[in-house]
Amino acid sequence: MPNSFSVYFAGDLFNHKDLIGNLLLSQSIEKESGERYVCVVPQHLEQSTSRSIDIRNSDLSEVVKADLILVNFDGTELDSGTVIEFLFAKALDIPAVILRSDFRSAGDQERGDPWNLMCSGYPRTRKVSLNAMAWYQEAWNKGGGTLAILERFYGKLSKTILAEFDLVLKEQSLIDNEQMLLNVYEWALRFPGNGFTDLISEEELRTLLHAKQNKGSVLT
């Protein structure tokens, strides 16, 4: 859809629970938003090579293209790849929503976020923190089959996330002019090295930034 916002899913994709959870949540977000938000889920990206650097480059290029990023911060230790994608997005001033559904306390903040303090405090970033066990039991106790339970759980979760997407898009951008925007993105294409610059041409970059401006995800 031409007026839709692309959302990059940053998070674990190493086991069946991660993979299915990503699939269900991404589909629910698209359904509940009427495809106003379209999800880019890394597990669905084709990998034509087994080289780790190519996989890294492919994922980071999708971050560059995204209008927003949804960051999964579950676990007692944050996934290092997810943290890299989050900080790369923040360097580009891409609006972000952090999702933590893990009810366990983690990290080194006594009264702050339940994750490492170095991942907190960034502009244009909102948070959704919930007790997934409590939400699951609420959905389960209402009865019905598996599909009904999943629809209740992920419908509620996606609506909560969508509200934060709408709010974070309204926050003031750190980038206040077109030249600064272009400079930031040009540098972002250079610093990863290892062929990353070759993935997006100068013409493609200008087209991408023009599209982001038109949608209001940059220079707000």
TrEMBL record:
Pfam families: Nuc_deoxyrib_tr
InterPro entries named among the record's database cross-references: Nucleoside_deoxyribTrfase (IPR007710)
Name used for this protein in its record: Nucleoside 2-deoxyribosyltransferase
Species per Swiss-Prot/TrEMBL record: marine metagenome
Lineage, highest ranks first: unclassified sequences, metagenomes, ecological metagenomes
